[in-house]
Amino acid sequence: MIVKIRSAVAADSDQLWYLMKELAIFEKYIDSFAITPEIVLHSGFKKKPRDFYCLVAEDNYHIVGLLVYYFLPYTAQNRPAIYMKELYVTEECRGNKIGEKLIKALKEVAELYNCGQIKWTVAPWNEAGKKFYERLGAKENRDWLNYELTL
What topology does CATH give the domain 4-135? Predict the structure, then answer.
């Protein structure tokens, strides 16, 4: 399988939305999923500054994977960081190192912008995801607990 990794463009919005919806089903939050293709287009491409950036894995003009991220411009290390919000590869394309290629491309973005870290969260039940990240050299950070305030 030959896959091209590239930055997403506005014309990808419908395909991005579809994969985001698939991820919401996989991660069991589809009942609260409120994203539409129009929101993807506006928030990721038309809004200035953008709410998010996205890398895609494309196989013959069909997007088979996505990595959504945004910048954390200020950190204690006086260097920006990147927060990886979503990484998803379609079920039929898993096992082809597409996720690894997307992470590699994100590392290149981080280096370009002099970022000191890439951060993300993983659902505790997602054993395959945890093994994947550890295989790439990532370490679980047990120094901090995640908290949320739902409004």
Answer: Aminopeptidase (3.40.630)
